[in-house]
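G., before I forget:
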Amino acid sequence: MDPIAKFIREPVVIFAGDGRVIDMNRPARSRFGQTADSWRHVFADLPDLQALLERASGTSDPVLGALRLAGATPSEPDAKVEALALRDGEEMGYAIKVRDAIGDQFPALTAQVRELNSEVLVRRRIQAELEEALAHNKVLYRELQHRVKNHLQMILALVSTAGRESDDPGRKQFVAMLQSKLSALFDAQRLMYSEDSTEGLRVDQMLCALAETVRSLAGVRIAIEVRAEPVIAPNDLAFPLALIANELLTNAVKYAAGPEAAVTLDFVHSAGEAVLTVRDNGPGFAPAASGPSSSGLGLVRGLCRQIGGHLEIHSDGGAVAVVTFPLSEPTHGLS
Amino acid sequence: MGAAVGKALDQKYRAALAVDRLSAEQVAQVLVDRKQRIKGDFYVVEQREDRIVFASNSCPFGEFVAGRPALCMMTSNVFGHVTGENLGYARVQIDKAIARGDPGCHVTVYLTPREDGGEAREYFRRVRPDLTEG
């Protein structure tokens, strides 16, 4: 045995060209037994060993491989080995170092790694369960939105029927008012369902839908122009905002002047603050309109308080209503 | 990896040329042909009884080879394996390498063993051992 091989902590076995064991270092004797005298006592598979040694014979440097050790259990992986051809004139021998049969030199580290691996497994399982629960909840949430939308649609139909069947003008007016408010809620709900969003919905899309609904319910020809930035509003803000916009638009349409009646709705968002402006070309607000319940403005003020905003009204070639409120877009946007 | 590529190439060229073993001239031509096919413009600088000297101004690995001389092992293994298998012995010495910052590559394949072996890697014709007696 070359003295250098004695320094090596892994088992090193020297074979003759015919497979006899010529020499072993101490770790190899300890691993394969003092009496091991043939490759059969060291390795289990002849073709694999031959292929490795053939590769080793082609170069002066060690070659890497994996071989099944003699007596290895079925669950044991093949051992990583390095084979080096030893040339002595015409004679050829081989040295094979078994790389991973040296035992665990770092038991504490191995235990720590094993513990971490088992923790990773537990966390992966928990994550899989959470993902499954989340997917289930999304289905339930969507189903709930769908049902709410359907119920609102049913209520709208019932209210419309009630209005049509009545001859009482006061009752018809009340039904129309109710229908308008329910339509606003329905539009927001329909958008929420169609966007499949759990975070919020697009304010510009909601305002356009509302404007279209108000225009169709008005029963008169009127142009409503919507200029809204594509901002996402959280769901809990969307419904009060829909009611506010509906109330202001309904008022504007109601008071806009004659055949040239025109209403504009602007929505801008900047630095965490949103401004909704509804303007018509009617006679403007009467001085008494600043009262708490004039033309539904009481409801608007109440809803403004709910979303942390405030309403300002003034006349400028018609009535102008400006609602300012804080708005932070949802972190994840629409799903 | 390089040895496996070298083995496959060697078998293909031998089959294409319909010979059992390549001559020294054929080895030089095969290695140049192989390199040129993969965009390395290798050419033979010198061919003598005891050596074949190759040079190149470009590397098949392109700009990615800069600072990665380990990639030269691919060339060394392919040249060494093909030469060793056909001529019985090869010692591959990378004299200059683009990977090491040289303007071009310069590779010498020695065909006869040196007494002291030197630092260069040696390649031999492979022998399948008969272990049935052991």
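Residues 119-326 of chain A form a domain with the Heat Shock Protein 90 fold (CATH 3.30.565.10). The CA atoms of residues 240 and 303 of chain A lie 6 Å apart.

More on Monday.
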